[in-house]
From TrEMBL, chain A:
Record's keyword terms, sorted: Membrane, Transmembrane, Transmembrane helix
Name the record gives this protein: YhhN-like protein
Transmembrane segments: 6-25, 32-54, 60-77, 89-107, 113-133, 145-166, 178-197
Key word Transmembrane helix present: yes
Highest taxon of the lineage: Bacteria
Automatic annotation (TrEMBL), chain B:
Name this protein carries in UniProt: histidine kinase
Gene3D superfamilies given in the database record: 1.20.5.1930, Histidine kinase-like ATPase, C-terminal domain
Source superkingdom: Bacteria
Domain Histidine kinase/HSP90-like ATPase: from-to ranges: 176-262
Keywords for the protein's UniProt record, in alphabetical order: ATP-binding, Kinase, Membrane, Nucleotide-binding, Phosphoprotein, Transferase, Transmembrane, Transmembrane helix, Two-component regulatory system
Segments crossing the lipid bilayer: 12-35
The keyword Transmembrane helix is annotated on this UniProt entry: yes
Catalyzed reaction equations: ATP + protein L-histidine = ADP + protein N-phospho-L-histidine
Amino acid sequence: MSDFLIYSGYLILLINLIFYSFSFFRKKEVNVFFLGYLAFSCVMQYSMEIMYHLHTNNLFLSNIFIIGQLILLGLFYNSLFTLKSQKSFVLISIGLALLILGLQFMMDWSQFLRFNLFAIALTSLLIVVYALIHFYNMLTESKTYYYASIGVVFYLLASTVLYFIGNLTHNLSNEFKFLSWQLNAFLIIIYYFFILYEWKKSFSK
Amino acid sequence: MDVHSLPEKEIVAIILYTSLFLMILSVVLIVFFYFSRKKIIQKELEKKDLVLQYQKEQLHAIIFTQEEERKRIAQDLHDDISSKLNIVSLNSHLLTAPNLTEAETAEITENIINLTTKALDNSRKIAHNLLPPVFEKFGLNAGIEELCEEFETSKSVKTHYKNEIDFDEKDIDRHLHVFRILQELMNNSLRHGKATEVWISFTEKDGVNNCNYEDNGIGFDSANAENQKGLGMKNIDSRISFLEGTIKITSEIDNGIAVNFTF
C-alpha cells in the first residue's frame, strides 16, 4: 500500500514534469522557476529512492530538498509579483533564511544528516507566506498559478507537521513507523494532482 | 522500542516547534485575511465611485442637451417666426397709414399673407421637429417611415427600412426613446459619417425586440474609447438604460457603423 502511494506520487510528478516542459518548450508560457522546481523535485525524489535502495542515509537529501524548494519556489513567486516591495521582501527573506540555516549547519554539522526541524519550519512558513501574498495579489486580478498555489499551501502546512514528528518515528514499532510517511505520500499525491490540474487549466490549450 | 527512550529534549523541541509553527501560521493567516478584506472593500468602494461618476456624467449630459434644445427652439422661434411676425406687424402698421393707393394696399396685404403663411409653416415645422405628429398618431413604425422619407427627400440619403414587429401602442413612451435613438443615429451618420445609405431593421427574437442599424459612412475606430463618449452617444446610452436594453456599437474607419440594440 505504502509502496503504491509512493510510486504513484513519483509517477504523477514525472507526468507533471513532462507536461510542463512540453508547454515550456512549445509556447514558453510556463514560469521557468516553476519548471525548475518540478525538475528539482523529480531529481531529489528519485535520488532519495535510489539511496534508500542502496541502504545509505538519505536524510541529508531532505535538507537539500527543503532548501532548494525554498529557493526555487521563492524565485517563482518573486517572478510572479509585480510590486517592488513584495519582490524585495521575497529576495531578502530568502537571503536571511539561507544565512541563518548556513550558520546553523556551520555550528552543528550533524543537523545536516537528520531531520532539521528548524529548517523545515522556516522554509515552509516562508513559502506559505509567499503563496498567501500571491493569493492576496490575485484577489482583484486574474488568476495565475491559482491551483498550484492552493496545492503548495495545502501540502506544506500538512506535511510540515508530519516532518516535525519525523524524528519521533524512528523509535516507534515497525507497525506505526511508516504511518506518517504513508500519510505524507498521500498528501504528496494530492499536491501533485493540484499541479496537474493547474497545467490542465492554464496550459493544456 | 518505545517513545520513552527518546531524549526528553527532543520531544520538547518537537512540541515547541509545532506549537510555534502553528502560532506563527495563525498570525500570518489573520494578517492575510485582514489585508484581503481591506483590499476587497477598497475595490468595492472604487466600483461605487465609478458608478456615481457615471451617473453624474449622465446627469450632466441630460442637463446640457436640455439647454441645447432650449437654445435651438429659441433660435428657431426667433429666426423663423418672430422675425416674420415683426415684418407682419410693420406691414399692418403701414396699412393704417393715410393716402395709400389701391396698388400699395394690395401689395402690403399680399406681403402680410405671404409672411403669415411662412410663419405658420415654420411653426408647424418646429412643432413637428419637437414631436412628429405621425409618430404620436400612428406609432413607431409610421414614425420611422416618415423619418426615412424625410431623410430621403431633404437630405439625399438612401434608406432601407424593414420591420417585422407589430408594435404595441401602449408602449409609445418606450418607442419614443427608440425613435430618438434612431433619429440621433441618422443625424450622426449624416453629419459625422457622411453616409449616403442607411439600413434600419426591427426583428423580434425570443420576445426581445432587436433593432439593427447600419450605414456606409466613414465610421470611426470603435476600439478608441474617446469616440464613445460624445454627448449624442451618452444620450443614446441613457435612453438604452431607460429601455433596460443592451447596445453594441461596432465600427471601423472607412467601413461604416453597425449598431445593434435591444428594447
